[in-house]
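Quick one:
INPUT:
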């Protein structure tokens, strides 16, 4: 990534921690970066495009750093910790005209995480494609619901702690459900051979 572009994006995140999205100006950004306006406009047409870029880059980095195959519970907590690091920024974006963009990227993040999780489960269970689609959408909606509830609640509670508790309570339950209701256990099929 270009260092200047990264500097502009990082500065945007810093400013979002301090004030609402609608109060951030190009002038605020270039003054803090010690750049001229032309440099900003070389990389970004306007602040909404900077917001889109920054959210997308953050999402891709979080996926790369935290979504380890086969460890969805840990990934959920790690993603929650990443959100907590910039909780005011996310709240400011969520409340702004760019809120839909944030939700779209969080949806992509949630879908990626759930797909990794379902891939891990379906190594043990034969699951029809139609059931896989339903379960994937269901779990993505649950994860997004947690994130939206946190933002609707003014980011006032400990999201990582809450996610840890959810994972602890439901540990193993979903796998049992998959094996008994939605698919056929591979182990049982092997024993009958």
């Amino acid at each position: 990534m270009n260092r200047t572009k990264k500097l502009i994006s990082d500065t945007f995140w810093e400013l979002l921690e301090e004030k609402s999205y609608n109060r951030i100006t190009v002038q605020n950004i270039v003054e803090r970066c010690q750049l001229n306006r032309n440099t900003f406009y070389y990389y970004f047409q306007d602040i909404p495009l900077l917001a889109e870029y920054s959210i997308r880059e953050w999402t891709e980095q979080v996926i790369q750093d935290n979504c380890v195959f086969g460890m969805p519970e840990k990934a959920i907590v790690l993603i929650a910790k990443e959100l907590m690091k910039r909780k005011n920024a996310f709240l400011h974006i969520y409340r702004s005209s760019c809120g839909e963009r944030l939700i779209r990227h969080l949806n992509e993040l949630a879908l990626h995480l759930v797909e990794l999780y379902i891939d891990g489960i379906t190594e043990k269970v034969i699951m029809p494609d139609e059931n896989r689609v339903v379960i994937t959408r269901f779990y993505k909606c649950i994860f997004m619901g947690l994130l939206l509830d946190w933002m609707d609640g003014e980011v006032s509670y400990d999201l990582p702690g809450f996610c840890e508790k959810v994972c602890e309570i439901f540990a193993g339950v979903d796998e049992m459900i998959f094996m008994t209701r939605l698919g056929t256990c591979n182990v049982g099929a092997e024993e009958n051979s």
